[in-house]
Amino acid sequence: MSLHRFAKILLVLAVVFVGLLAKPAQVLAQVDEPDGPGAIPRIDLSISPVDGAEDYSLAIQTLILLTILAFGPAFITMMTSFTRIIVVFFFLRMALGTQQSPPNQVLLGLALFLTIFIMAPVFDQINENAIQPYLAEEMTQQEALQAGAIPLKEFMIRQTRDKDLLLFMDMANMDAVQSIDDIPLYVVVPSYIVSELRIAFQIGFLIYLPFLVIDLVVSSILLAMGIIFLPPVLVSLPFKILVFVLTDGWYLLVDSMVRSFS
User: Fold this and answer.
1) Over the range 168-183, which residues count as b (16 or more CB within 10 Å of their CB) and which as e?
2) 184: left (phi over 0), alpha (psi -120 to 50) or beta
3) DSSP string covering 148-208, please?
4) Are 97 and 214 in contact (CB under 8 A)?
């Protein structure tokens, strides 16, 4: 099933679900007298409106919530520190040559909890500046969305190169801005992703380099000994794991990753 078709199905289900929350749907089946032996009965599906605007407001809020949940994976991977962390972890696994160890579930889980740890101050600001005032009915939904986007944009812009941000601002035909509030999210997010991928590949190169040296040394030794049928990667694997463990690699890597966002 294609992504476009899945999105259409999700939207239809969301609309039907919102209608059911607003008021149980009234399905009226009107069967006319068949005009002929092959006539098909006509079925009329209608959702009756309810009295008061609060029910409509609840239905719209539910639709927005379902939409946010549908874009949850994209939000986690593209607007937080998750992208840099998971790319570096996969570079590490390739450099070690351990194939599927650690498995994807372990790397994704570790990256997710590190993301929660790194993004906790940002989430606290969003909760304090937007969610709690909105729940206390001190600001409208639009004001809450604008207030909640500011800490997130500040975090992303701190990690974004000026060159990448100016690139997307030029493509969006934006002039110089006075504050972060004037930069929309559709400009901040792609520039942030490009910067994160660049930093992640730089870190991945620095991680890959020492393990590549070990592979070259082992390969040279095996070639000098005349052992050409034994894969060098198979021999260098325990040495790379030993070096990584003796240097306390996980501690150094996680510490460096977390501090890189400060």
Assistant:
1) bbeeeeeeeeeeeeeb
2) beta
3) HHHHHHHHHHHTS-HHHHHHHHHHTT----SSGGGS-HHHHHHHHHHHHHHHHHHHHHHHH
4) no
| 258's tokens | 């977390």
The structure tokens 């990448």 sit at 164
The pair of three-digit structure tokens given for residue 17, joined into one six-digit string: 């679900």
| CA end-to-end span of the chain | 41
Sign of CA dihedral 29, 33, 35, 36: positive
Q: What tens digit of pLDDT does each residue of 3-61 get? A: 455 444 444 444 444 444 444 334 333 444 445 555 555 554 444 445 544 444 666 76
Q: Where are the alpha helices (DSSP H) in the chain?
A: 3-22, 54-70, 72-78, 82-96, 104-126, 132-135, 141-158, 162-171, 185-224, 232-246, 249-259
Backbone torsions φ then ψ of 36, nearest 5 degrees: -155, 180
